[in-house]
Every structure is written in C-alpha cells, then in structure tokens.
Amino acid sequence: MKRWWSFVGLLFLFVGQCVAQQVLYATLKDLVAGRGDTLTTLKVEKRSKNQICLLGGADYRITVENNSGLSRYLRSRCYAVKVDTALYVNCKKMKYKHFRFGKWYAPAIWVAGKIYFCAQPIGSVAGSCVTPTDAAKLGGEVGTAIASSGLVNIRVFYELNLVTGKAEFVGKEKMLSLLSDFPDLQDAFLKESSEMADVVGKYLMQIKKRRK
Hints:
Order of helices and strands: HEEHEEHEHEEEEEEHEEHHH
Strand content: 25-35%
Number of helices: 8
Radius of gyration: 17 Å
Largest sheet: 8 strands, antiparallel
C-alpha cells in the first residue's frame, strides 16, 4: 500500500512536532462552528504499522509533552484538532454503525461543507476488503471486524454526519452520488476498480478544487 502512504504525505504534509497554528475542538458542534482553543505545544506523531497492528486505532497520536492532563484530554475527550490546514478527528468519538474505530486520530478533510476522514475499514467494510484467511481479529475497543494483518495497510474514507456524528462509508455508490455534478469525473471513477483511500481521496480532492 505504498500509494496510500504517499497519498497521505502529499495530502497533509505534516508529521511530528509543530509550532504553527493549532486549534482544539471540544465537540462536533464546536468543529462545525469553527470555535476552538488555540495552542502551540501539540506533538503529532505518525504511529507505526506495528503499533496499529498490535493495539489498533488510527494513524496519528496527538499529545502535549510534559502535560499528562492535557494529553489525557486529547486522547479521551477532544473531538478534533487542526494544525495549520491539516485536520485530525478523534476516532474514539467515531462510530460506523455499531462498530468503533478505536483510539487516536485520523486525518480528515473538508469538502463542500462536509468532513471526510481516513481510517481502517471496519464492520461490513472490513469484510469486503480482506479474504477470510486474512481475518485475524483484534479485541477491545477496535471491534471484532479489525483484522490485525490484512487491514493494517488498508484505508478507506468515511463521511462524517455533521448533525449526528455518525460515519458513512464512502464506497462506489456514495462516490458516484458525490460526483453527480461532474460527469467527467463520474465517468473516470466508473473505470476505477478500487474503493480504497488513494482512489477515493483523489476524487474528493477534485470535488474540493471545483467547489471553491
């Protein structure tokens, strides 16, 4: 899945310690309203494949060095974090149907007034991404659908409902609906054979560009 990691790097261009504009959003309502608290001490770390495989959860760990209380708040209660133009949503707050994504933060983007975030496939989405022999299950918060080996490198997009906070998988049918105003992009997407993040993300970015 080298294309996926390259895609994330190009899309967000941010890993590690940052002293730029950093905003914490306590709730989904605050995020939608653009109402947050500004800090300059956040540390954003890319989690390793081994960490994700063994412990589950999302791709980014966000903490504050030498401040365990604020780090706990970021881990458990904070809804989203913005670092410059990069947005991260707390997967502890996210749910797809009755499945949870686990801990830590997933990269997200605003597109035409909606939020889309990248995370591992879970639930029925996971079942469509791996073969039965790959489905070694993880327990805990991550849910029984996360496969420790087959899904560690796989990412898909979800659309976040800005009212209910629920996530909807952005698969082929959803993507075709989002592209309904752009027949050329819709035709191009119909020729794609994947619903993975590197493909779907490319078209989300095209929508974002054209909606400006």
